[in-house]
TrEMBL record:
Residues 30-47, 73-84 have a biased composition (Low complexity). Residues 1-27 form the signal peptide. Residues 28-47, 73-99 are annotated as: Disordered. Keywords: Membrane, Signal, Transmembrane, Transmembrane helix. It comes from the Bacteria. This is Uncharacterized protein. The chain crosses the membrane at residues 53-70.
Amino acid sequence: MESLKTINLKSLSAIFFLTLTTLMVNAQDSTSTSTTTRSSSSVTTETTTVEPWVWIVGAAVLIIIIVALVRGNSGPSTTTSGSTDRVTVTKKVEREKDV
């Protein structure tokens, strides 16, 4: 019965949050009933993402990330020459024989 109360509480809080979000979105709606409208617009657009150097830097960072992910973890198991050391463990089991 207590789990039903927590589900109802979660449902009510989710409904409240979604209603609040809907009210905030509708409050930002551009249609208004006001009759006096003053508009003075000066449009200046500066886009820095169109610049070629931004694309070059972004591509370089992406390539570095891809190379780092492909190479994997080169932790302490690698030697200075770049080759990895392998460890082979061999177990020998001897059972007692009846005499």
